[in-house]
Amino acid sequence: MGATLRVDLPHNPTPGEAGDFAEQVRHYLGGDTTRDSTIIALYSDAPWGDQSERPHSRIMDALEACLAFAGIPVRDAWWISGSVWREYFCDDVRCCPWPGRPIDDITSSELNAELIFRGSHYGRSIEEATGIGPELQVNTDRAVEESTRENVHRVGNSWLRENQFAATMGAWRTAVEGHGDGSRRAGRLPSGIQDEESAGFLLASLTCKTVRDCLLVQISIGPEIALKGAFCGDLLSSQSGALMVPEALNTNPAAARRADEDPDGTPDALAVFQAVLVGGHDGPPDWKSINRAADLFKMLLQFSSGPSSAALLTMLSWIEWTKGRGSHAQSYLDKCLELDPKYKLAVLLEQLFATGRLPRWATKPDTAWSSIGAEAA
Question: Within 13 Å of residue 99, how many CA atoms lie on the same side as its CB?
């Protein structure tokens, strides 16, 4: 098995729309250069009363023609409803009895038990499958809330001073790298964050959109390009001042120089910075760092409110999108838009998701995220 892809079926498409859908599927599968054929599993509860009149035939015919032309012909296709499954193209009742074989033959199989053991999970809804419930669960801590308010007021517009910005990104790096996988009692701070002051500082920093965006780049490809990209984009002020960073998170980062003043710098740092955010970067992401950051973001959610919550939910949505997990990404995005329908990054991500575009690294086997050893849904 090579690349796998899940896409939603278009509703009653015209021939042209069916062709466009098939072409989009072909484009997604193009990232796997070792592919030689395709298997399709069609999930639908559409009525199939007449054996000769297959449901979704316009889509399936378009896929069959498009994928054959691309050199990855459809080897087989399975139709799966809520109660039965059968081969889509086979009319021989001797091997494919009508109306199909019971779904229980799959769900009670040894193979299904093995898949569940390895982390795969089926849910009756997106919320059940993703574990992102209908209500955002928060267990706010008064000390963290007070620290967040104080840091928002104390730092003010200084988040974008070059030395403060670099120190803030260093604080986030300390928190992410120090966040382990150990168990934690409910209501206690995540590992990597030693006190309420540190948690409040990090949450307050997310009210600055440049910190938020730079953090996504930093966890994906490292701090060097993240900082240089922010500096090259003229997003920061060269004005200096006293650093305001909690002692537990103060890594005393050296003042970062502008890329154009660094003889060993990356001249296209800004272009790489922007490419990462929109999924146009070709290089391999640091999945270990991304996974650790995602776990930290989830834990920080219970201590957050307002803009900090919106930022965390949107960053988690972006992370799931980079993994190619559209259902998870949309669930987090929906929660953010419930909280703040006008949160700009969430609105932009919703528009991006609507195009069906995937990050480049998610379309290549050697750079895509793998569910092995992690949650899968």
Answer: 14
Nearest-angstrom CA–CA distance, 303 and 317: 18
What's the pTM value of the predicted model, to 2 decimals? 0.76
Structure tokens at 52: 């000769």
- Taking the C-alpha atoms of residue 207 and residue 211, their distance in angstroms, rounded to an integer, is 8
Partners of 84 in the β-ladder: 102
d(CA 235, CA 115): 47
Contact 89, 40 (CB under 8 A): no
With left for phi above 0 and alpha for psi between -120 and 50, is residue 230 left, alpha or beta?
alpha
Q: What angle do CA 254, 179, 278 make, to 5 degrees?
A: 70
| Residue-by-residue DSSP string for 274-333 | HHHHTT---SPP-HHHHHHHHHHHHHHHTT--HHHHHHHHHHHHHHHHHTT-HHHHHHHH
Kindly report the backbone phi and psi dihedral angles of residue 62, in degrees, each rounded to the nearest multiple of 5, phi listed first: -65, -40
Contact 296, 177 (CB under 8 A): no
CB 56 within 8 A of CB 10: no
Contacts of 297 (CB under 8 A, 6+ apart): 312, 315, 316, 319
Report CA torsion sign: 253, 254, 255, 259: negative
- The DSSP symbol for 53 reads S
Residue showing tokens 């098995």 = 1
Distance CA 126, CA 133 (A): 9
Per-position pLDDT tens, the chain of length 377: 777 788 888 888 999 999 999 998 888 887 677 789 999 999 999 988 887 789 999 999 999 999 999 999 999 999 999 899 999 999 888 888 888 999 888 878 888 788 777 766 666 666 666 666 555 555 568 899 999 999 999 998 899 999 999 999 999 999 999 886 443 433 478 877 888 999 999 999 999 999 999 999 999 999 999 999 988 887 788 877 788 999 888 865 544 444 344 434 455 888 999 999 999 998 889 999 999 999 999 999 989 989 999 999 999 999 999 998 888 899 999 999 999 999 999 999 999 887 778 888 887 878 888 875 444 33
